[in-house]
Every structure is written in C-alpha cells, then in structure tokens.
Write a structure and sequence with these properties.
Radius of gyration: 21 Å
Distance between the termini: 67 Å
CATH architecture of the largest domain: Alpha-Beta Complex
Order of helices and strands: HEEEHEEEHHEEHHEEEEHHHH
Number of helices: 10
CATH class of the largest domain: Alpha Beta
Strand content: 15-25%
CATH topology of the largest domain: Aminoglycoside 3'-phosphotransferase, Chain: A, domain 2
Number of domains: 2
Length: 331
C-alpha cells in the first residue's frame, strides 16, 4: 500500500492502532477515510485476511468544540449497552482506547456494517420504497424510546439530572451562554427561555427518562436493497444519545418541522404508523414548541460558529414565531 495517506492521521499511527487492537502481527492492507461525518474522523480499515473494520477517531481534547460535543465518544461508549433492543442493527465495538498513548485522541474500532446510507440513495428509491423505510424507521425509534433509565440528561461523563425540568432549563441556559459567546443576539430565544422558566412545572409531567438517539436521520441509517424491498439494516452514531422526553429527540424535531410540507404527509403517516401517535394535548404542544426552540437555538449557534448568516436569519424568524405562539399554550 502507499506510504502516505490523505488523512489527518499518519500511516504509522493507524498501524500502531491496529496492532494495539488486533495484535502485533496485524497487517494493514488499506485505509480509506470515509465522508459523511461531521465530528469524528472515520476510516474503513482492511487488514490481512480481508477483515474490514471501522476506525473512528475523536477530536483532540484541545479542540474548540461546542459544549454539547465534549467527550462524545466516551458518552457513546457508556450508553451503548442501553441500545440492546436494536443490537442487531448496530455496529459492535471491538476495541476502545482512551489512554492517549498512541495519539492524543480517543478512538475506537467497530465492526463494519453492510448497507448504503439512506441519505445517499433516497433520491434513487421510489416514493413507495421511501414510505416503507419511514414505517420501519418509526418502529426502530419506538424500540429505542421504550428503553428507560434512572436519570435525565447525558451519559457519563456528561451531567445527569433528577428531573426533566432541571435538564431543560440547564440546556436553555447553556445555549444562551453560547449565543452570548458568539455575539448572537436573539431576543426571541430569551423570551422563550423566560416562558419555559415560568412554566417549568409542565416539564415535571415527564417522570421517566427515555433513551433518545440524539442524532437520528437518514444519514445515520444504513439500507440494504433487495427484491425491490429496501430494509433498514444499520443504525449509526449514537454518541449524542441522552435521556429525556421522546418528543425532544432530534428526529422528532425534524419530523415536526416537515408537517407543513405536502410531499411529506404520506411519509409522516408511515413513520407514526410504525411509531404510534404522540400526545397532542395542550401540555404536549407546549413542550414540543419549547423543544423546537431548543433545537433551533442550538442550530443557530452552529450557524454562528460557521459564519452562515442565512441560517442565522432563518433561526431568528422561526424563534420569533415560537415566542409569539407559546403564550397562547401557556395560559
């Protein structure tokens, strides 16, 4: 193989990682850096004997990352056993190394899952095929959300909370701090935060922490095509998983904002046919709008970090709409 790689790690470092994980006799045949990720570096590694594994490498501890992205790989390692209900759909961890003896970064080897990212092929699939996949997705998300835990918040070494109320208010406070740090003035977000504080008791209706994937969408689902019947065969990247109200999960937020799009009506129906209809009472609507503001606020900070003025403007508009609607739901 080539003596150099177009990667951020050196060939010697990757070789040492493989030898630590698979023994000194492990022979590295090829390495391919995979795209599609937004946080970790990910490589497809082939060892002698055609053994293919995935190497994921976290950013260095000195990297300037968002507060919610700190120690993601360690959080993932801690929470993985709680995804037992979909274990057949998830890559298995072969080896983790948090010692920083090889590189000043956390890394892990995982089994290589077969399939194509749904996001890469959704335009190639028929409308009905995508509809079937959304039904399957709803069933998978239901299985994830049915797992319950003991504390709200994040897996170790993240912070845990005894109540959902505390968790939500802490998240709003942290997002507000980030907005100030990036000089992102969004008056509507402060208004929403004040309303959430004034109605904090509404969040105490959520007594049980449920497992949330935290980053589930078509880019984190693998699909296998066969006999005109695509099947979801892989669920990836649970490093942002946390414990809370199922309505606050990232995928539920993305589905909510597509309710007004005509082409999505059948896909939404298919998802909820597999998942079950969520609560729609006034209290649930209030929480849903607060969660929507929470996610939009996080996206606004990300846009500020990346200098995306168009997305910041859109976030401001959406937050203003929520700030106007919430008082009617909080009466």
């Amino acid at each position: 193989m080539s003596d150099s790689l177009p990667t951020k790690l050196t060939l010697d470092q990757i070789t040492t990682m493989c030898q630590r994980g698979f023994g000194c006799a492990a022979k590295l045949e090829s390495v391919q850096e995979l795209g599609g990720g937004t946080f970790n570096e990910t490589y497809l590694v082939e060892l002698a004997g055609k053994t293919r594994v995935i190497l994921r490498v976290a950013p260095p501890p000195t990297a300037n990352v968002y507060w919610d992205d700190v120690a993601l790989m360690r959080r993932e390692h801690h929470i993985l056993p709680f995804f037992a209900s979909i274990a057949t759909l998830m890559p298995k961890i072969i080896m983790t190394d948090f010692t920083h003896q090889v590189v000043e970064r956390d890394y892990m080897f995982q089994t290589c899952m077969e399939g194509e990212r749904w996001s890469d092929i959704e335009d190639e699939l028929t409308f009905d095929e995508n509809t079937e996949l959304w039904h399957q997705c709803g069933q998978i998300v239901k299985r994830i959300h049915e797992t319950t835990g003991e504390h709200f918040g994040y897996p170790y070494p993240g912070r845990q909370f005894t109540s959902w109320n505390e968790m939500i208010l802490d998240r709003f406070a942290r997002i507000s701090e980030s907005m100030l740090a990036y000089q992102l003035e969004v008056t509507a977000f402060r208004t929403i935060s004040d309303i959430a504080h004034a109605n904090a008791a509404r969040f105490d209706a959520i007594h049980t922490p449920h497992l949330l994937h935290g980053d589930l969408w078509t880019f984190n689902l693998l699909v296998t095509r066969g006999n005109n019947h695509p099947t979801i065969t892989g669920v990836l990247d649970v490093d942002r998983a946390w414990w809370g109200d199922p309505m606050a999960d990232w995928i539920m937020f993305l589905l909510v904002i597509r309710r007004g799009e005509p082409e999505w009506q059948q896909w939404l129906s298919a998802f909820y046919d597999g998942y079950g209809l969520p609560a729609s009472d006034e209290s649930a609507q209030f929480r849903q709008e607060v969660y929507r503001a929470m996610h939009i606020g996080t996206c606004a900070v990300g846009s500020a970090r990346n200098g995306n003025k168009e997305d910041i403007a859109r976030a401001r508009r959406e937050l203003c709409e929520i700030a106007q609607a919430l008082p009617l739901l909080s009466l």
